[in-house]
Amino acid sequence: MLIIKIGGGKNINFDNIAADLASLVKAGSKIILIHGASEKRDEIAQRLGIPTKTIMSPSGISSVLTDSDAIDVFLMAYCGVVNKRLVEKLFAHNINAVGLSGVDGRLWQAKRKGAIMIKEKNKVKLLKGNLTGRVEKINDHLLKLLINSDYLPVISAPAISHENEIVNTDNDFATAVMAGALGVFEIVYLFEAPGLLKDFKDKKSVISQINRNELDDMMEFAEGRMKKKLIGVKKAFEVGVKKVYFGDGRVENPITNALKGKGTIIS
Amino acid sequence: MLIIKIGGGKNINFDNIAADLASLVKAGSKIILIHGASEKRDEIAQRLGIPTKTIMSPSGISSVLTDSDAIDVFLMAYCGVVNKRLVEKLFAHNINAVGLSGVDGRLWQAKRKGAIMIKEKNKVKLLKGNLTGRVEKINDHLLKLLINSDYLPVISAPAISHENEIVNTDNDFATAVMAGALGVFEIVYLFEAPGLLKDFKDKKSVISQINRNELDDMMEFAEGRMKKKLIGVKKAFEVGVKKVYFGDGRVENPITNALKGKGTIIS
């Protein structure tokens, strides 16, 4: 089985991804797809007059501030438009897709964070009421039920807290926890870059191979969202994943290319 | 098995419905829930500056004009906010809910309508490009898979056309077709009225019993959306349903009350 995580950036080419997926499914691969929708979320939030508020952790990792209104926008973008439009696209390629969120059937069960520390104008302060959490437990029964009947699950955040609240969660981290729960050995992460770049301004500086033990050292090359992705990858190796592929989600045959090592392979 | 359809009106009390459902599930009932989200759809459309356009059929039945933007709003409201918030509420009552749309796994397969006749300013004219369809086929395999594993499916429109386009569809009609496909004998429809009213301005004029053969005569008492509901009910009897309950979705114990005959029973 293969888990593929697609970023939610503007230039991710869902048509190319669907076509490539179809060839893999036809060849007999069992696949789970996880997708982001950050671009659509920001667009809807802006149109509704609810701008996305970003917060920064003391260690310099940015994330989205999530109150109940923000969760609603999240649901509109991730579970509404992007999830269902992706399922629609997969049907056109004869893929038997079922769209779900981490909420459904308690697929992604998260520990809600209490008050969190944030960094604002170089000061560290405490922030309460943030509806976010970290995925700890997976309903692998529901996933196996679908996969064993030849459905391809198409999943996105949010998750559900142990106290039954919808909470925002990091998709990349949840992907890793899911791989562990299902005993999946390989994950492909597709995003808007050709791979992990040594210099994020130089598209040709792709690091093609990384040893899993070097991941901490790689943090220095990672900008913004990529830091979070590397935390997800670290988690993946902790729960038994053997190989992680980073690939460009904007090109033709994005998955096949990533599997061939045209991006970054971490093992 | 029991199918319960909840309207998407403003005053529908989802908390009461969830509590009532919990008691039925605890007593061993297998249930499928279908929900509307018309109020939330209109609200989002308005906030996004995409007002809902209603059209009128030559026979006087109103429905929503659906272009691709309208489908996106539909996905935000039905599959996004309302579906997932309802699933969240059901968890609080220990109900193992899984939210799906008619799109997922081709759950509701619809025949897309071609150009349709509409009535505008007392003139009948042809309208093209309307993304609507009528549900003809159900993926009963997916539903049984979930139900037999004790998941409670929470389903809403839209549906998927035979040509793999997301299309708006009438929830009440789809509910009836689904009952037929699953061999379900009873459907409860909950909405913002105490039952079918003889005089829609007089809340005390509830018709408590209707013979299924009198449905056509009842059309004269039906206002607006209720006409569509009665068409759905007619379809339900055609596909093998034995009893349909209309009940008030705003009160305590709305399902139990409807089953006790406090609204309208059609048989």
What does this structure look like?
Two copies of one chain form a homodimer. With 267 residues, chain A is of the alpha/beta class. Chain A has a single domain (2-266), classed as Acetylglutamate kinase-like (Carbamate kinase, 3-Layer(aba) Sandwich), CATH 3.40.1160. Chain A contains eight helices and 16 strands. An eight-stranded mixed sheet of chain A has the order 5-10-2-1-13-15-16-14, sandwiched between helices. In chain A, β11 and β12 (166-167) form a beta hairpin. The model of chain A has no long low-confidence stretch (mean pLDDT 94). At the A-B interface, α3, β5 and α4 of A face α3, β5 and α4 of B. Chains A, B: Residues 2-246 form the Aspartate/glutamate/uridylate kinase domain.
How far apart are the first and last residues' alpha carbons of chain A, in Å?
Answer: 17 Å
CATH architecture of chain A: 3-Layer(aba) Sandwich
Note the total helix count of chain A: 8
CATH homologous superfamily annotation of chain A: Acetylglutamate kinase-like
Low-confidence sequence ranges of chain A: none
Share of residues in helices of chain A: 25-40%
Biggest chain pair contact, residues each? A-B, 40 and 40 residues
Largest sheet features of chain A: 8 strands, mixed
Fold-level CATH name of chain A: Carbamate kinase
- Number of E strands of chain A: 16
The proportion of strand residues of chain A reads 25-35%
SSE run of chain A: EHEHEEHEEEEEHEEEHEEHHEHE
Oligomer: homodimer
- CATH class of chain A, named Alpha Beta
Class per helix and strand makeup of chain A: alpha/beta
Rounded average pLDDT of chain A: 94
Strand order in the sheet with the most strands of chain A: 5-10-2-1-13-15-16-14
Radius of gyration of chain A: 18 Å
Number of domains of chain A: 1
| Overall morphology of chain A | globular
